[in-house]
UniProtKB/TrEMBL annotation:
GO terms for molecular function: DNA binding; DNA-binding transcription factor activity. It holds the Pfam family cNMP_binding. Residues 22-125 form the Cyclic nucleotide-binding domain. Residues 156-224 form the HTH crp-type domain. The lineage of its organism: Bacteria, Bacillati, Actinomycetota, Actinomycetes, Pseudonocardiales. GO terms for cellular component: cytosol. This is CRP-like cAMP-binding protein. Keywords: DNA-binding, Transcription, Transcription regulation. It comes from Actinomycetospora succinea.
Length: 233
């Protein structure tokens, strides 16, 4: 992990705060105060931003790279819960519900993050109710996605759910762009990345899709995939 010089941090922090969806409603004076309190840290691929059990003493904004939320069992099994989008905040649950971290946040490629001390963020929320509502709204969105995923796990097999999602993604003819790493795709369905990989392989074995090198897109047999997603094949 490395850090950036303070004078460069403050300037970059202002820009990041103005564009972060969860924080962009902050008033200018609060943006300045948070920018002065912020630091920038860089993490190599595989390095943890924080670990389960750590104190929830900061919120983060992803400036560059890719950071996933991850659970690791005592047996060493790993499940990726979701990925932070560049420019978005993460690690703020403990600001609203104080306590230790409940999962890891790990850089999956070289990444840089803006670090906002919890005390400074809480002070900002006290004078910026719109920002507090934005964070609460983000939590509601996550809960809704989780509920939808739970219902999907109950009523629909994972490969059919993946097929339905592929049909919703941006496409160029029969070529579908996943829009980023497969972790983000798994997050939309509320499943582990490993589960998504298994489902994609199952669709490929059925001849419904052909995965592209690098795993960030696929060529699909659209009529067959529509029929499969609807349960008629």
């Amino acid at each position: 992990m490395t850090m950036t010089a303070p004078d460069r941090v403050e300037q970059g922090a202002r820009a990041a705060l103005r564009h972060c969806p969860q924080l962009r409603s902050l008033d200018p004076a609060t943006v300045d105060a948070l920018a002065r309190a912020a630091t920038v840290r860089r993490y190599a691929a595989g390095e943890a931003v924080f670990r389960a059990g750590d104190a929830g003493d900061a919120m983060f904004v992803l400036l560059h790279g890719s950071v996933v939320s991850r659970l690791t069992s005592s047996a060493g099994d790993v499940v990726d819960l979701g990925a932070a989008a560049v420019g978005h905040g993460f690690g703020y649950f403990e600001l609203l519900d104080p306590g230790p971290r409940t999962e890891d946040a790990v850089a999956v490629r070289d990444s840089s993050v803006l670090v906002l001390p919890a005390t400074a963020v809480r002070r900002a929320l006290q004078t910026n109710p719109a920002t507090l509502l934005a964070l609460a709204g983000d939590l509601v969105r996550i809960v809704r996605l989780s509920n939808r995923a739970r219902a999907g796990r109950t009523f629909h097999p994972v490969p059919r759910r993946v097929a339905g999602l592929l049909l919703e993604l941006e496409h160029h003819g029969d070529r579908v762009d996943f829009g980023g790493p497969q972790t983000l795709l798994a997050q939309r369905l509320g499943i582990a990345r490993q589960t998504l990989n298994t489902a994609l392989r199952a669709l490929a074995e059925r001849g419904l899709i052909r995965l592209h090198p690098g795993g960030r897109g696929a060529t699909i047999d659209r009529p067959a995939l529509v029929a499969y997603a609807a349960g008629s094949r």
